[in-house]
Amino acid sequence: MVDKSLLIAIIAGILQGIFEWLPISSEGNITLFLRAMGSHPEAALQFSLFLHTGTAIAAGVYYRDELKRVLESLPEWRPNSAFQSRQAELSFLAVATVASGVVGLLAYKTLDAVVSELAGGGFVALIGVLLIGTGVLLRTANRFELGNRETPTLFDALLVGVMQGLAILPGISRSGTTAGTLLFRGYSGANAFRLSFLLSIPAAAGAGVLVFLDTGGLPTVEPTSAVVALATSAIVGYLTIDILLRIVERVSFWAVCIGIGIMALLGGIFILII
């Protein structure tokens, strides 16, 4: 018979491998799942962030050819449009990653203090409010999918980096906020999600490293469960990324975010009342 903690780890890894590619906040939904399974709010948050390392590996393998093309522009100088586009994307990834790291660290420390003060219901309600906010952002951004910009600017990098840093808060979708910001800036939906997922590789890896440094090791779960969850999220993430990116173009995930957010908000209020 499978140990309960190991089963929870496998389910969490599967959810991360799927939810990371959807603009519905994998962190927020997995944190809600772990809270429902009895995890302490702080432990649930740390474990959901840790699982991003697995999907960072999946994204790195999936986008390996594109990453190789971008990195090949480093030692060369070829003054043509293709080269300049790769250079712009490399600069975008570097600046946005630094910006998101600074903002994310500040947001994480603030969140850590808030979580320690909130009761269980208050924490769930907070995730619900942030999910609703993500849904509203996605709904608004969908109306701006009219542009055809391709080459990112320094301002784009800073803006997207700040938004991605804030997405460390459970309930704020990383892919939803970054892609949504790029839509506002005039990029097509396909290009916005492509840049968003390239940026997810260093960002997700950084989230895992942040948890590792904050906890002094693996999250507060059994090492075997942590490794199994990480491996599961990487495998499922790689197997599902292509089909789920196609689904994103067809499904109104803003409504999913708002629906889950309302349920979490009401559930948190109910817990506080009783």
From TrEMBL:
Reactions it catalyzes: di-trans,octa-cis-undecaprenyl diphosphate + H2O = di-trans,octa-cis-undecaprenyl phosphate + phosphate + H(+)
Family label: Belongs to the UppP family.
Amino-acid biosynthesis found in the keyword field: no
Listed InterPro entries: UppP
Main localization, broad class: membrane
EC number: 3.6.1.27
Name of the featured protein: Undecaprenyl-diphosphatase
Pfam family, one: BacA
